[in-house]
Amino acid sequence: MQLSMWTYEGPPHVGAMRVAASMKDVHYVLHAPQGDTYADLLFTMIERRDSRPPVTYTTFQARDLGASTADIFKTACHDAVDRFKPRALLVGASCTAELLQDDPGGLAKTLDLDIPVVPLELPSYQKKETWGAAETFYQLVRACASNRQRPETIPANTCNILGPTSLGFRNRDDVREIKALLEENGLNVRVVAPLGANPEDLARLPEAAFNIVLYPEIADTAARWLKKAYGMPYMSTVPIGVSETRRFITEARALAGLEPVPSPSENKDRLTWYSRSIDSTYLTGKRVFIFGDATHAIAAARIAANELGFEVCGLGTYMREFARDVRAAAKEYGVEPLITDDHLVVEDAIIEARPELVLGTQMERHIAKRLRVPCAVISSPVHVQDFPARYSPQMGFEGANVIFDSWVHPLMMGLEEHLLSMFRDDFEFNDGATASHLHAHSPAAASNQQTAPAGTSAEEQITLPASATLWTDEAEKELKKVPFFVRGKARRNTESFAADNGIHPITVETLYDAKAHFAR
Fold it and tell me: Is residue 277 exposed (0-12), middle (13-18) or buried (19+ Cβ within 10 Å)?
């Protein structure tokens, strides 16, 4: 294992916590030492829950290792059932407790509890958080839905939504948006799971005609089992972005036996018009680096390239289980895929790609801030500010509008910062200037200003940075033709190119040679 200051995913038992915290009437007994008790931190502080997560720890200490920690686990299970009265119990071990080999699943079978007990075998040193969440959901579905009788007649327009969980990126709002979109199109959503579901809801999953997998990382395994056990078809189109939302509606209506609609909900799609507006065309061709979970990273690349006119200069994920999907997407955009869970490798890739916008997790937000590159968060892991109190989905037409604002505004703010720098010394906009409508009545300021020599133009009064002495006058004039919001980058790239090739001074030819070099 590699020791890292940051990590994209926790161990698999954190994924099990996410599923337990997503559901009702489910409790998780975790065999763990004192110090591994951080569920409250994850859910009540980061996700800002109004209730404590349904997790009970054995919290054995060093002095308990001389006796039987198995008895501590049994007592914790009995106490949890008596106190919380769940309808299903999850049992497992943390990565530290796994070394004791107490076998929580086997111990739970000896307790003679009158509720279903689902033992979780989560190899902490081979797998990670998202896999743990997917495995936990799959095991719960099997425990609750096995041996159920699928009705002979099921309305074709009934479906389940699978995949949303606690700590997922905007999952709560995505469910609200997509459920309303489906119902607007004549579909009846029977169960949403695991978020907001209880064990009885999982038992009713086979009663719907088909399943919709919103987050394949979490629900793909369970959906495949439901198809094998009950013949339930499922669709995995992720409705992030305008084009995929329309495709999602078309596929869902087809599975439900409904007629296709020619142009679904065009009145709700503002991204398409925004992306053609003059403010956005200024941003066409911006280089974007994308990194996150597989679902959001692939969707972000598609939106950036096809719906906003950006250039994808980097694409990657920390989820090795979905590396094939990300590699296929990266090939489509002509970039080298980045499959890693090392944030330092991601930082090096961002520096090498020279993006003008970074779309990533909270780790990439820190990296971009240090590099002074605009950034928008698109994926877990995230921090408290990415669980907004307002309605802020990523899916559906409203999600596309939210994405436009989230991605474009950092770039527009970058333009404003350039404007502030550009006009900082202007007589009307500098910090000491009075309001323009009071200019005629303001006291003369000439007494405390240095008077420029006669015949000196405003252009000649501007103090150039020390690096400007490397440039010829003609090259400086040519550089001023570059749009101001990329002029600083053009200057840096040209000076770097000149230094690498031993060129001095920088001429107009050097400027265009550098432009050709970095455009390759």
Answer: exposed
Type of residue at 79: D
Residue of 71, 279, 426, 500 with catalytic role? 279
Which residue, among 288, 294, 286, 390, has the nearest Cα to 341 in the 3D structure? 294
279 is catalytic: yes
Q: Are 364 and 296 in contact (CB under 8 A)?
A: no
Q: Which amino acid is at 314?
A: G
Beta strands at 26-31 and 88-93: parallel, antiparallel or unpaired: parallel
Contact 13, 30 (CB under 8 A): yes
For residue range 171-201, list pLDDT tens digits in order: 999 999 999 999 999 999 999 999 999 999 9
Q: Residues of 300-310 as b/e, b for ≥16 C-beta within 10 angstroms? A: bbbbbbebbeb
Amino acid at 339: I
Q: Could you give the CA distance from residue 134 to residue 322 in angstroms, rounded to a whole number?
A: 13
At residue 489 the predicted structure's pLDDT band, cuts being 50, 70 and 90, is: confident
DSSP string covering 259-306: PPPSSTTGGG--HHHHHHSHHHHTTTT-EEEEEESHHHHHHHHHHHHH
Ramachandran assignment for 349, one of left (phi > 0), alpha (psi -120 to 50 degrees), beta (any other):
alpha
Average pLDDT over residues 157-171: 96
Q: Are 406 and 67 in contact (CB under 8 A)?
A: no
Q: What proportions of the chain, in percent to the nearest 5, are helix, strand and coil?
A: 50, 10, 40
Tokens standing for 320? 């090795």
Angstrom distance (rounded) from CA 328 to CA 338: 12
Q: Kind and range of the H or E element at 370?
A: helix 362-371
Cα–Cα distance measured from residue 11 to residue 232, given in angstroms and rounded to the nearest whole number: 31
Cα 511 from Cα 513, distance rounded (Å): 6
d(CA 71, CA 75): 6
User: At residue 462, what are phi and psi to the nearest 5 degrees?
Assistant: -65, 130
Torsion over CA: 422, 426, 431, 437 (sign): negative
CA–CA separation, 448 and 244 (whole Å) = 62
Q: Which two tokens stand for residue 114?
A: 């009158």
Tell which wins on pLDDT, 284 or 188.
Answer: 188
- Say if residues 397 and 242 touch (Cβ distance below 8 Å): yes
In this prediction, what percent of the chain has a pLDDT beyond 90? 53
